[in-house]
Automatic annotation (TrEMBL):
Originating species: Adhaeribacter soli
HAMAP family to which the protein is assigned, alphabetical: RlpA
Designated gene of the protein: rlpA
Name under which the protein is recorded: Probable endolytic peptidoglycan transglycosylase RlpA
Top-tier EC class: lyase
Domain SPOR: 142-222
């Protein structure tokens, strides 16, 4: 196994371990987790989040990699003991070093605007009886034939395409991923495609999250 492939596998294993830790935390009300929080604001204000809800930087919301949309979480800044309760409406942060991405208003309430990040404790207060479904439908359920997919790599080696697919699934389990095979210039190419969206803003938002996690992507438009 060459050094490049070894580094890729090692990175995937670290991501998988982080995802398993998040899954254990997400399994029940009252569970707590300690880690680093970050926040996001004006750049995404007014844009559609992964749940389909329009992101409003002035509301008490947050992004989490795996908690069901609509889950209420109490976040405590361990440096000053300030507390905020937020509702999960988005996916992120896609980093093995951070556990939650707060809205600007939520970050301001616990005094972490200037620092950008803070060590926090998260506690699940309540989870929806059934996950709030995204309001953005897949393209095949709307009248328009136009849709968008996220391309997360093209590989000559099928095993590398599989590794990329699994890495995406550990970051966002509810994002469908497929592998396609094409012949280009006499060579077989395996492409990793994630999602199928009727809304370009949602595709762009998830693309940005994957890019931050170290998975270079591009949004492609399809028809039919």
């Amino acid at each position: 196994m060459n050094l490049c492939r070894l580094n890729y596998v090692f990175s995937f294993i670290l991501t998988l371990l982080f995802a398993l830790n998040l899954s254990a935390f997400a399994s029940g009300t009252g569970k707590t987790q300690t880690g680093t929080a970050s926040w996001y604001g004006s750049k995404y204000h007014g844009k559609r989040s992964s749940s389909g809800e329009i992101y409003n930087k002035n509301k008490m919301t947050a992004a989490h990699p795996s908690l069901p949309f609509g889950t209420e979480v109490k976040v405590t800044n361990l440096s000053n003991n300030q507390v905020v309760v937020v509702r999960i409406t988005d996916r992120g942060p896609f980093s093995k070093y951070r556990i939650i991405d707060l809205s600007e208003a939520a970050a301001r309430k616990i005094g972490m605007i200037r620092s950008g990040t803070a060590k926090v404790t998260m506690e699940i207060l309540s989870k929806p009886e059934s996950e709030v479904p995204p309001t953005v439908a897949l393209a095949d359920s709307v009248a328009s034939d136009v849709y968008f997919v996220i391309q997360a790599g093209s590989f000559s080696d099928f095993k590398n395409a599989e590794l990329q697919s699994e890495k995406i699934k550990t970051l966002q389990a509810d994002l469908p991923v497929i592998l396609t095979k094409e012949t280009v210039g006499g060579k077989t190419i395996h492409r990793v495609l994630a999602g199928r969206f009727s809304d370009r803003q949602v595709a762009d938002r998830i693309k940005q999250n994957l890019d931050k996690a170290g998975i270079p992507t591009l949004v492609r438009q399809g028809n039919g």
